[in-house]
Design a protein that fits this description.
Layout (H helix, E strand, L loop, with lengths): L10 H5 L9 H9 L2 H11 L5 H8 L3 H13 L3 E3 L5 E3 L1 H4 L2 H12 L48 H9 L17
Antiparallel strand pairs: 1-2
């Protein structure tokens, strides 16, 4: 994976604007993604279509539109252009892959197997897989009502108050210390 050409940057530098709720990770994510085509182009690169000609043909874009979009993703640190002209996702770009996987799974929800136009498979076996969101330490699924958001260690007072009102805070309104996988 290549690093953004401008090094480590703040979210405001990546997206160009501050979110309405500055300490909201959901707002920061939406602002980083911006347009639907951000995920479309990242998806192409994740699937190994890294040459501009391949991407243009797959998506039916003009040279001008594709160049503008690739430049925008490169400027935002999501893609990097290699010396051979191909594109690779940066670490920041790769961090959006789980979002794309979850969105695709959600889009296939309720469809019979024969109705799905795109499925996720194990590259080694070809077996279809279903992505789920799990805790990295315990492996427990976290997509149920048993898991909720609460204010984190640097949450603003309005955010802390919001979660205190619903009784969704840990003691003083701060989340428990993070657990790290080995």
């Amino acid at each position: 994976m290549l690093e953004p050409r401008h090094g480590v940057r703040t979210w405001a530098e990546v997206v160009g604007v501050e979110p309405r709720i500055k300490d909201c990770p959901l707002a920061r994510t939406v602002l980083a993604v911006r347009q639907w085509w951000t995920l479309e182009l990242l998806h192409e690169v994740f699937d190994g279509f890294t040459e501009p000609d391949e991407i243009r043909e797959n998506l039916g874009l003009s040279d001008e539109v594709l160049a503008e979009r690739l430049d925008a993703l490169e400027e935002r640190g999501l893609l990097a252009r290699r010396d051979d002209g191909r594109y690779e996702a940066t670490e920041l770009g790769w961090s959006l892959r789980p979002v794309i996987l979850a969105m695709a799974a959600w889009g296939n929800r309720g469809l019979a197997a024969h109705e799905r136009s795109l499925i996720l498979v194990d590259a080694a076996t070809g077996a279809e897989v279903e992505p789920v969101v799990v805790d990295s330490v315990s492996g427990v699924r976290v997509d149920s009502e048993a898991f909720r958001f609460t204010a984190g260690p640097v949450a603003s007072e309005p955010l802390r108050l919001k979660y205190r009102k619903k009784g969704l805070s840990h003691g003083s309104g701060e989340a428990a210390p993070p657990r790290h996988s080995a």
